[in-house]
Amino acid sequence: MALPVLPVEIHFMTLDNLLYTQQPISHQNLCAARNYALSCKRHNSIITGYFRAQRRWRYFYNMLNQFPLWDSPATARRRARMPSGAPGGGPEPDVLTGIICNHCVPCYHLLRDHIVFPVDRFNDFGYSFLGLALTVGCHEIARDIALHIDWPHHITEKANVKNVASESIITLAARTGDERIFQPLFERIPARWRHTVLFNHIRQHERAQLCRTSTPDLANQLFQNGCNIAEGLDNTTLNTSWHYGVRNPCGPLFMSWLADKYAVHLGPDRLNGNYETALMECVRSGTRMGPDVVRWLTNIRVNVQYALQDGTTAAHLAAKLQTDESIEMLEILLPHADPNSGGQQPAGTILHALVDGVQSVEVQLSTNTTLGRAKRREMRRQCYYRVEKKYLDIEKHKIDRTLTNAANLTAVEYASNLRLRHLANYINRTPYNLRSRPLW
């Protein structure tokens, strides 16, 4: 509820009390002042007027003298304190460090828009503010700070100059896989240094991560400077550039670039740590561009019939997935897949996967007690709409409904055991109208 309309001076006095009670100013005080201002009517004009007042402007302009901030890596390395532990674990050396460690984006915008705070400095624990944001995973603030870094040595410096084991800023930026963080930093590296910087700081792990959001233009620039992100390999998950590329927002446009530049031993059918191909990763991701990427992958003849140890194929994943995109993905995969694969295996056939998809929705509805009656009905209607569309596609490919899973249950028996009788009746006799049954 908004506070009653009071004279602006009263609001200014309250903000003064919140901000001046602790010197130097902390993130906690700044956050309290921001929350108070948001509770007032005309809060935008109050905030703007407060920070533009001459006396207060001088105070915030001199805020830099309140905190030990260092303007270069050499000075920070010589004069900053050793960090006592992980970021955010102890007292904050300055207000921006507190904001970043608490992932408080609104307070950062307040600091950026109304208080002239140097985001390209180093704090008293040896962290650059960009390096700190990347270290704690505050990517939204990191994207903005990346636009304000002009000094090339800052980009190749360690995130924490006091910690010998700390990674460089450009390495951490690449590891996020976020083009909006990496590209501004890359463009600030002088052209004559780029090949050396990329060679020293961007390894196979980072190359794979960069395939998440890189545009073909950025990928080409990196390739021309000796960094081929198509040859990436995540050393933790064993995901290749293909596994990350299938999620790229550019879709087939980026995949076409990837197909021209990849190494033979890191091809599209290479398995990751979960023994899944890039096609299976694409289906599982359920992204908006998923159907286009699946179609593109089938056109270059990837192995659609590859199955996991339990018999799960990419078509099984598409049948089980409960998204609108999964309908089109299954339609694309079925002509290239074996619709009767998975018999006598834990995963069962594609029909068993279809039952698993409905069961996952029922489990979600039974565990989520916050959903109302209308929402539950709508979720079930959407689920059975997808099931009906998928079943009609599966039926065109002469599915054998008598095949069993590892428990010797057909899809009909499997659905009955899960108390999905209406689904069992639908699979058992096609004319049965699935959506005419009560869905509550």
| String of helices and strands | HHHHHHHHHHHHHHHHHHHHHHHHH
Q: What oligomeric state do these chains adopt?
A: single chain
Percentage of helical residues?
Answer: 40-55%
Query: How many helices does DSSP assign?
Result: 25
Mean pLDDT: 87
Tell me, what's the shape?
globular
Beta content: under 5%
Q: Please mark out the parts with pLDDT under 50 across 5 or more consecutive residues, or reply none.
A: 436-440
Tally the beta strands.
Answer: 0
Largest sheet report: none
Assign the structural class, choosing from mainly alpha, mainly beta, alpha/beta, alpha+beta, or little secondary structure.
mainly alpha
Radius of gyration: 28 Å
Q: What distance lies between the first and last C-alpha atoms, to the nearest angstrom?
A: 37 Å
Structural overview:
Residues 436-440 have low confidence and may be disordered. Helix 21 (324-333) runs parallel beside helix 23 and helix 24 packs antiparallel against helix 25. The protein has helices spanning 8-20, 27-38, 43-52, 54-61, 73-79, 95-101, 105-114, 129-136, 139-146, 152-156, 169-175, 179-187, 191-201, 204-210, 216-224, 241-245, 252-261, 278-285, 290-299, 314-320, 324-333, 350-367, 373-395, 411-417, 421-428. It is mostly helical. It contains 25 helices and no strands. The longest helix has 23 residues, at 373-395.
